[in-house]
Design a protein that fits this description.
Blueprint: H1 2-16, H2 23-37, E1 52-56, E2 60-67, H3 84-115, E3 124-131, E4 145-151, H4 152-159, E5 170-173
Parallel strand pairs: 2-3
Antiparallel strand pairs: 1-2, 3-4, 4-5
Helix pairs in contact: 2-3, 3-4
Length: 174
């Protein structure tokens, strides 16, 4: 009988715990997609697929996206070889857009920290962008993935000007 009460109390606790509502993540997915599209308004194919968000209980919210910072000439039956000029042009365009991408990721971290109220203050907000390069491109010294993260409560403090954003955001490039 004692065991039944313990199981009942455990079940009641689990059922009473608020479930994470995905609506906030969906809004952040769409918002980040719009930010990414603004990196190159003239290039509708910069975003490879829609951003995906997931909440990991005990860890936080993670947004991931895949981006091609610049589209350019690709080998085809009509142009089997892409010239060095085209390769150089695409590389330069991608290099110019990298700082803008990083800033957009930081802004998304701040926006997510403010709007994802269900994520506890001690959990993380993470934004990850995987960058696409084709075999004929020169991607030397360019990241294949950029990861930015911060504790939600500290990100909110940074947004309110209480602490420096640079002291809160951890950024890694692979």
């Amino acid at each position: 009988m004692k065991r039944a009460w313990i199981l009942f109390a455990l079940a009641a606790t689990l059922l009473a715990a608020p479930a994470f509502k995905r609506a906030g993540l969906i809004a952040m997915e769409r918002s980040f997609d719009q930010r990414l599209k603004q990196l190159a308004p003239d290039d509708p194919y910069i975003l490879i697929g829609p951003t995906r968000g997931v909440y990991l209980d005990g860890y936080g919210a993670v947004l991931t996206s895949e981006v091609n910072l610049a589209n350019g000439p690709r080998p085809s039956p009509f142009q089997p070889i892409v010239g060095k000029e085209g390769i150089t042009k695409i590389r330069q365009l991608k290099l110019e857009r990298l700082p803008v991408l990083r800033q957009s990721m930081r802004e998304t971290l701040m926006a997510a920290a403010s709007s994802l109220d269900e994520v506890p203050a001690k959990e993380q907000i993470v934004v990850v962008v995987s960058l696409v390069y084709f075999s004929e491109e020169d991607s030397t010294g360019m990241p294949g993935q950029i990861l930015m993260q911060g504790e939600r409560g500290k990100l909110i403090d940074a947004k309110l000007g209480r602490i420096s954003l640079d002291s809160v955001v951890k950024a890694k490039e692979f």
